[in-house]
Specification:
Mean pLDDT: 88
Helix content: over 70%
Structural class: mainly alpha
Number of strands: 2
Number of helices: 21
Order of helices and strands: HHEEHHHHHHHHHHHHHHHHHHH
Largest sheet: 2 strands, antiparallel
Low-confidence stretches: none
Shape: globular
């Protein structure tokens, strides 16, 4: 069982290499589906065998790599990492199903997504700083080419902006890692990149914590993205292909919030408390400002992109509430938002495939012509805005409860900001799906021939929506798994 995590990490990479050897379009689609599905099944095996009552990391594998520098291949998972890995493998499988009809450079497309899956699972599994950084940087190249090759009109600009921002954040993350590694050598005479060693055996003085937290924090804030580091995300989403937006919003943004929980709270507890006012301020600005920006958008994907920034503000708010409910809610929101945002971007992609436009002014009354899609898109949006019975409600409730315990004013401000979430989605849905009078008679006749969702659309939609209902109606086992992490962070 100790090797199953390693198998999960590198199985998609094997699939990518196989595609590179065969280079057959149809075979590439089948290989990506098979390898991603098997990886997802392996994540369910991890879920089934996870021990709630066992402290620390599980499914640990450690192999010495570069002894002179204290670098090893060291992987393992806690409750948070487990659920993020299950969500990651699930969304990659959904993305491959959605991409069944792609015809442009098929082999390269699927190989890049499989390489990206390896990097994503590796980030959530790594317990060695060097290994973590390799996977962290490893996801940058596949996503750069996915946006740059299969994006829309300004795809090269968006890909370059994504690369520059992410690389900028990674530089500060590298400086933060160097800070704590050097301090470990100076204070303990130990040259090690091992996360657990630094967590348990090296106590950083206040000034090291404050400095390292800022350096790590900038790296994570760019990835989240937190305001004011957010400007790369709307451009990346607007230009990315549908599957790219699914993974970008559903998985890649969670790397930043994962980093805050795993590294910032775990390694720098004193600095985490010190920076609470700053983090809360930036989080609340993100919740309200991004929601207001979403209301102002006329482009569907840009609207959904700003909604992601707003939801990530809720995650960082709950994370630094430093209560069990707050941290549980933040992690739950990572999962809930991963599902709902992927579904919303699938909806935007479906509209573009049928109408060839993302502009709200060119749309109206679509519910009459694609009624099944209209229902699926509505449920996806309701999941995003936190309707009771869906995953987002549980996440938002826990975040607000955990924040209100110690910081009631911030909780109230953030709660009022969440109301805007319902405003921007319902505004967009009304314009796109219900206002048939906005379109001409000639357009109506043309749209009478529109095809509703096909099987490769329906499967990922149903899977994601069913998962959102499961997490919304029966959250107990998932909160219990997440509690494994929050108790570890808070010392419970």
């Amino acid at each position: 069982m100790e090797n199953i995590l390693t198998l999960m990490i590198f199985l998609p990479l094997v699939g990518a290499l196989l595609i590179g050897i065969i280079r057959n379009p149809q075979a590439s689609k089948i290989i990506s589906l098979v390898f991603s599905f098997v990886t997802f099944l392996l994540s369910l095996v991890l879920l089934a065998n996870f021990d709630f009552n066992k402290e620390g990391f599980q499914f640990v594998k450690k192999i010495n790599w570069i002894n002179s520098l204290g670098i090893s291949y060291h992987v393992g998972i806690d409750g948070m990492a487990l659920l993020l890995i299950v969500m990651t493998t699930f969304l990659f499988f959904c993305a491959f199903v959605w991409s069944w009809r792609i015809e442009d450079r098929v082999a390269l497309y699927h190989a890049l997504f499989l390489m990206l899956e390896t990097a994503c699972v590796g980030v959530f599994s790594a317990l060695d700083f060097f290994l973590f950084y390799i996977f962290w940087e490893g996801m940058l190249i596949p996503m750069y080419f996915i946006i740059g090759f299969w994006g829309h009109e300004r795809k090269v600009y968006a890909a370059n902006k994504f690369f520059i921002y992410t690389f900028f954040g990674s530089l500060f993350l590298l400086l933060g890692l160097a800070t704590i590694i050097v301090y470990g050598v100076v204070s303990k005479g130990v040259f090690t990149f091992d996360y657990i060693t630094h967590l348990k055996y090296i106590d950083y003085p206040r000034w090291v914590e404050l400095l390292a937290f800022l350096l790590f924090g900038i790296g994570f804030a760019v990835k989240v993205p937190m305001w004011p580091f957010h400007t790369w995300l709307p451009d990346a989403h607007v230009e990315a292909p549908t599957a790219g937006s699914m993974i970008l919003a559903g998985v890649l943004l969670k790397m930043g919030t994962f980093g805050f929980v795993r590294y910032s709270l775990g390694l720098f507890p004193e600095a985490s408390e010190f920076y609470i006012p700053l983090i809360f301020l930036l989080s609340v600005i993100a919740v309200i400002y991004a929601a207001m920006m979403a209301i102002a958008q006329t482009h569907i994907k840009r609207l959904i992109a700003y909604s992601s920034i707003s939801h990530m503000g809720i995650v960082t708010l709950g994370t630094f509430a430093l209560t069990e409910e707050g941290i549980n809610g933040a992690i739950y929101m990572m999962i809930a938002h991963g599902l709902s945002s992927a579904a919303l971007f699938m909806g935007a992609g479906f509209i573009y495939d049928r109408i060839h436009s993302y502009e709200i002014k060119n749309l109206g009354g679509l519910a009459r012509y694609v009624p099944v899609f209209a229902v699926l898109f509505m449920i996806s949006g309701l999941a995003s805005i936190g309707l009771p019975g869906l995953a987002g409600f549980v996440a938002e409730f826990l975040v607000l409860l955990g924040t209100y315990k110690n910081h009631p004013v911030w909780a109230i401000i953030a709660g009022t900001g969440m109301i805007l979430g319902a405003a921007y989605f319902l505004y967009m849905y009304k314009k796109v799906m219900l206002e048939e009078e906005r379109i001409s008679e000639a357009v109506r006749e043309k749209w009478m021939k529109l095809r509703d969702v096909e099987i490769h659309h329906l499967i990922p939609f149903v899977m994601i929506i069913a998962s959102a209902f499961l997490l919304g109606l029966y959250p107990y086992p998932f909160v219990k798994i997440i509690g494994h992490t929050s108790q570890l962070i808070l010392g419970g």
